[in-house]
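Changelog entry: the inorganic diphosphatase record was regenerated in this release. Current contents:
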Amino acid sequence: MIKVDRILYSSVVYPHNYGFVPRTLCEDNDPIDVLVLMQEPVLPGTFLRARAIGLMPMIDQGEKDDKIIAVCADDPEYHNLNHLSELSPHRLQEIRRFFEDYKKNENKEVAVNDFLPADDARAAIQHSMDLYAEYIMHSLRQ
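Regenerated structure tokens:
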């Protein structure tokens, strides 16, 4: 799902479709973010099938704010990719640089760490699904 949650403060644009994984919750009280590589842009509110190929650990204003890097499972250009190592170094640098710079005009500090493999991305998704389930169970008990 793609949700408009901010208007960027400068002329930078997201390098790919950006959204979140439904039914997840992270330590920042938001769903886990996902950048989906595919040939075409999609409209906000679009659901699509994606496969995690890596994780970009990030700290935003002192809080953990990791990003899942995924590919659209139904896009013929990307559907065979399974690992970040299959992307060009330029593509990874483009993604990193965007997230290092996109909040500069808001005077917000962001730190991007080294990319991690698909297993780490899947573990992060599972952890955020577990946090979401705990949150729902806690809400039902109240």
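The chain has a mean pLDDT of 91.
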